[in-house]
Each structure stands twice: as C-alpha cells, then as structure tokens.
C-alpha cells in the first residue's frame, strides 16, 4: 500500500498523506450520500458529510467522529503557510482514521456493491 511506502520513508513532512486521508474519507462519505440520493453542497467538511449521512447510516456520525479532524488537510496541506508539517506518527493516525471511514462506508454499501451493475 502506498501509505506504507511513504510512512516507511524518512521525510521532512507527511502532509501528502494527510491530504489523501482527508480525500479518501470525503469521497467515501459522498459515495454513501450519492447512493442514497442525499443532496449535499460543495464541501470538504467531514462533520457536515457525517451529519448528512446519519439518516441513512444510523450511528455513523458518532462512530466516525474522529474523522472530523481530517477536514483541515483538504486545503492547508496543499499550500505553504504557518502550520507545522504533519509528522510520521500524525500521518499514520490520520491514515487509520481514513481507513475506518472507508471501511464503514463499504460496510454500509455492501449489499449495493455486491449486487453489481444493473442489467441492461
């Protein structure tokens, strides 16, 4: 897995992993919302996406609340600024949070994914 390769390297910053962790969580939650035809605005806010997902996946907001901490990585990791670079331990934690989000969404969508594409 790419995150393992990056985490195995000695780098000054692991900001890229923070960005990709946020993106994985965001896109997974948006997939869940699209599947259930829940409208959402253009946003990177994980908290907002979790709240919107709650009616179609009861308990998801509380079980994945730690993912809310991923939101800042959507923007600040891509631009220079006063923030401290993400270190290896922080990046590893954020990758695990993103994995939890993706895993939970896969679980929520299991029957849909297992059904495959509609005929025709």
How would you describe this structure to a colleague?
- With 120 residues, this protein is mainly alpha-helical.
- It has one domain: Four Helix Bundle (Hemerythrin (Met), subunit A), CATH 1.20.120.330.
- Helices cover 56% and strands 0% of the residues.
- It is built from 6 helices and no strands.
- It has helices at residues 2-8, 15-35, 46-53, 60-63, 88-108, 110-115.
- The longest helix has 21 residues, at 15-35.
- The protein is globular and about 50 Å long.
- The termini are far apart.
- The relative contact order is 0.20.
Secondary-structure topology with pairs:
Blueprint (H helix, E strand, L loop, with lengths): L1 H7 L6 H21 L10 H8 L6 H4 L24 H21 L1 H6 L5
Helix pairs in contact: 2-3, 2-5
Class of secondary structure makeup: mainly alpha
Treating each run of at least 4 consecutive H or I residues as one helix, how many helices?
Answer: 6
Could you name the CATH topology? Four Helix Bundle (Hemerythrin (Met), subunit A)
Oligomer: single chain
Number of DSSP-assigned strands: 0
How is this structure best summarized?
This protein is 56% helix and 0% strand.
Features:
globular; Four Helix Bundle (Hemerythrin (Met), subunit A); 6 helices; 120 residues; mainly alpha
